[in-house]
Each structure stands twice: as C-alpha cells, then as structure tokens.
Amino acid sequence: MCLVGFATSMCTCGAIPLTITLRRKGATTANALTFLLSSPWTGFLHLLILVNLIGLKAASYFFVFSIFVTFLTGITLGHLEERKKIEQRISEEEISELQAEEREHREEKLSKRMIYALERSWDLFTDIGKYLLIGFVAAALVKAFIPEEAIQQYLGLQSRFFNPILFIIPISAVIELCSEGFSILGGQLYRMGASPGVIFTMIMVGVTTDFTEISVILGKFGKRTTIAYIAISTALVVVFAHLMNWIWILA
Question: Considering the entire predicted model, what is its pTM?
C-alpha cells in the first residue's frame, strides 16, 4: 500500500475518499490506513515542493523516512487487527450491499458519470488551492514577524529548548493544512534555521492529525483504530525525526 499511495500522489483531501472506497470494498483496516498515510506523505507534488524549498538531499531523507514510518505503521496496525485489538474490516454482508449500490451507479449514462467525475475533480482542486494559499500566507507571516534567531534558538539543531521535536507536535496538530501547505510552511522554517527533524515532524504529524482525516477515521474505522493510528504514527515520526537530526549533526 505504500507504493500504491506514492503512485496516486494525492493530498489528504483526495486520499480520504479513496480510503473510504477501499474500506467499502473490503480492504483491511491496516491496508486502508496505510494508503491514507502514504498518499499525502509520499506524494509527488509534496516531494516536488520540498525539493525546491529544502533541497534534494533533505527532501530525499524526508521521502525515505516517510516510507519507513508508513510501512511500520501499517505493519503494526495489521498486527493489532489480527489480534482484534482494533476494529476489523467491514462484514461480507455490508460489502455485498455496498457493491449492489455501486452497480446501480454504474448503470447510469456515461455522460452523467463523467460530469460527476469532473465535479469531484474541481472540488479537489479548489480544496488543494485553498490550503496551498494558506501555506504561502503562513510562510510569509513567519518570515515577516519571527526573527531567524528565534527559530534557530527554539527549533534548530543546537537548540537548548526542552525538545523542539516534541514541542512542534501540538502546534502541528492544531494547524489545518494539507501536506503541500505544510511543505511550504515547513520549507520556510527550514530556511530560517529549524532542524530537519522538526520540519519532518511538523509535516508528518500535521497531516496525520488533520481534523477532517481524524473525523473520517473515527466514523468509518472506529475509536480504537483512531487512537492506535495517531499514537503509532506519531511515535514513529518522533523516533525517525530524532534519527534525522542525529544524521545531520554527524554529517
């Protein structure tokens, strides 16, 4: 599912409907949520923005580490699903009912289905555009009003502040941006002196804790799955973010 997510390269807004579709068609909880993570985290547009803002080397680390986090999160969720610690895939009866509904839609005229597809594509485009604009504005505000010395002191590699990686988690959680928007904001902070691990955490956790995404997971997958999804992915992001900073210091 990691590779499928990369191939689709969607932001969170686009990945959510496909994740629901996978769920409706009987995909396991672990596989569906692995796709939901990998599509925005390893998306092509997301990666392209990062390359332009933080450079090819840093973006490559982000890409490789995000794949590791996605894969390990999926493996862990799969293990919990097998042991029935989180909610299971929907029943065969529900799958049959949903497939019957889909067959009814497929019988509609091709022109009507094409119009519906174009409408959904436009909705997705407007959603992405909105969050990209927010990302640009946030990056501009950071550049205009926050001194670089403050970023380096509190979020940099040599920061003496408590733990910048842990500090950025709640901040990322309350900011509502898509992966591309976080890439723009994170890229600006990186240029101002924030450590790679802090930016990696901001982008990854920010996408995972998106309010819309969490609401969908809670409604479609269940409470235990939602808690496990957030806890496991966040813990792995923190581990790999510290590893990334350690590599940067040694280099």
Answer: 0.79
Ranges of H-type helices in 109-162: 110-145, 148-155
The residue among 28, 34, 43, 56 whose CA lies nearest residue 180 is 43
CA distance 228 to 37: 13
Look up the domain containing 18 and give its range. 2-250
Place of tokens 């969050």: 131
81 φ, ψ to 5°? -65, -40
CB atoms within 10 A of CB 248: 15
Say which amino acid occupies 77: L
Number of folded domains that form the chain: 1
Distances (CA, A) of 52 to 46, 179, 183, 188, 192: 10, 15, 10, 11, 15
Helical (H) or strand (E) element with 165: helix 164-174
> Kind and range of the H or E element at 210?
none
- Residues 186-232 have pLDDT tens digits of 889 999 999 999 999 998 898 888 777 788 788 878 899 999 999 99
Q: How far apart are CA 149 and CA 151, in angstroms?
A: 5
